[in-house]
Amino acid sequence: MLVRETDERNDSVTTYLRKCESRKAPDVMVGVTRAANSPLQCLSPAAQLSTTTMACFRSGRRARWTSNQELLPVLRDGEREIRRQMRDVPNGRREQPTGTAGLERRSGGFDLDSHRIATVHEEQLATVPAPPRRDLSLFAQDQWQVRPNVTINYGLRWDAQLMADTVDPATTAYASFVKNPSFLSDGTIPNQLAEFQPRFGIAWDVKSNSRTVVRANAGLYYARNNMLSQAGSVTANGLQNQGAVRGLTTGLVRGGVPMPTWPGLVEIPPLPPGQFPLFTAVRVTASDYHNPKIGTVNAALEQALAPDWSLYLDFTWSKGVDLSQFLNINTAGRGAPFSPQLSDVFVHTSLAHSLYRGATVGVRKRFSRGYQLDANHVLSKDMDTDSSERDPFLDRSFDLPLSELDRLYAPSDRDIRHKFNLFAYGNLPAGIIGNSRIQARSAQPITPTGGGPDQRNSIRKDNEFFTFDWRIMRPFRFGNRYELTPTFEMFNTFNNKNNINPLVVPALFNFDGFLRLGVGDPRQVQLSVKFVF
Questions:
Q1: How far apart are CA 39 and CA 42, in angstroms?
Q2: What's the rounded mean pLDDT across residues 228-240?
């Protein structure tokens, strides 16, 4: 379930109220865009649902309003009713029965504290087929032993991604704009067919004595257009799913629309076939879209220092082009050129780019004489123009003209300048086995409150990280068949705060590579016993 709020500054909030998963059956919807058999397509990023938020429960032909406290039981009842009316067909598919549980175009919901409407236009929405996923790949590689101490590996990979089909653009809410170059899209998702990716690697034992080894590799790599990004362009076209803006006058309801109070009802008058309400929100993919492409070069040196001890140096350079960037090209800051017919026009473009450079220095002790050790430090710099390549719900471009997007080039959301890791394992006196781990890293960047494009990610969060974890265990053996091993462990020994994100209210969605938000783990102690027989 999803609830949506949007204020006049276009800040947006959504909230899940149940597990989000692909389903073939229609579901009770609250301000969502979703096609059958496709992942849930949210209108905006999610956060906590406040106790004052109102939500619209759709059932049959009526849109009924309820407070947050009453929302969950109402939604559960509605979902059970829809499940009850679903029937299986012989080929394993599920179809929507012809009953009042089907979602209808005239149902709609108004957000309480905003100028937005969340509506859905669906004739037989539940029977829309899932977008097909068709991927083709070929790969060939070879190894060449140039000399006894030189080995070369080389290969070539080819990938093709055939994108999901969209409806006829002439039938959509944006049909009159597809020939306008400023619209950026013709209503389809371009197939990706020419993804050739050569790779090369070499290993050189300099003196043929395994004491000095040089390794290097380079290659091109393409990423896929994930289904979450495609789903919006497939379904959010005004024909299957649509969103709309409530102003003084819209194509849905004329004049000012008062907010309903529980248990009031709001009836949305239907439009003639082929017509769409004003200020319809849509999503499309740019006509010149390309899948993200990464070029990477890596070089490493490993030098033996003493028996079982070695020093290693590593450098990585990685350049990303054609990275995904989601832009709303119909904002007030960009002149709203497609209003009043359309409101939000989110375009999946490939205009972003990135550059990563990282150097690692470390020392390694192979296991011998009862212990082993590995320690390394990484110094890196990760720059890009947009870090939201898997977040299709936000435009982070500050409404810049498309020709000025390079002003956003700054440290990426994932930029961590320093990382340190140490791991040790060894046999201690009295038959005790111990291991320990130290991990530390510097803070990530963030844009200051009220900052503009030239201040993007210009300061650092309060999320430096340090932890010292350790474990000791003592195996006790009984005969040849039994072993009892008590273990004592401690995590975050010094109880460092390790904030994961300094935001007061963390978002539900997180696309920056770190799945957790909030305060880090406190000191923890764990005692366990393992019995082997």
A1: 9
A2: 87
CB atoms within 10 A of CB 452: 11
Strand partners, 141: 155
So what's the architecture of 134-224+289-333+346-413 in CATH? Beta Barrel (2.40)
Tokens at 440, concatenated = 């530390």
Pair 53, 13: CB distance under 8 Å:
no
Q: How far apart are CA 99 and CA 9, in angstroms?
A: 40
Tokens of 354: 């990135």
Question: Rounded to whole angstroms, what are the CA distances from 120 to 32, 212, 270, 419?
Answer: 7, 65, 12, 47
DSSP state of 328: E
Q: Read off φ and ψ for residue 33, nearest 5 degrees.
A: -115, 125
What's the first-to-final CA gap in the chain, in angstroms? 48
Lookup: tokens for 406? 């390079």
Q: Output the pTM of the full model.
A: 0.71
- The predicted-structure confidence for 457-486, as pLDDT tens digits, reads as follows 999 998 899 999 999 999 999 988 999 999
Q: Do β-strands 12-16 and 2-6 pair in parallel, antiparallel, or remain unpaired?
A: antiparallel
Residue 71 makes CB contacts below 8 A (sequence gap 6+) with 1, 3, 17, 55, 57
Which two three-digit tokens encode residue 206? Answer: 């300099």
Domain ranges, ordered by start, for the chain = 2-130+243-266, 134-224+289-333+346-413, 416-533
Please, are residues 94 and 88 in contact by the beta-carbon 8 Å criterion? yes
Q: Would residue 60 be called left, alpha or beta, if left means φ above 0 and alpha means ψ between -120 and 50 degrees?
A: left
Tell which residue, 343, 324, 451, 460, has the closest CA to residue 398.
451
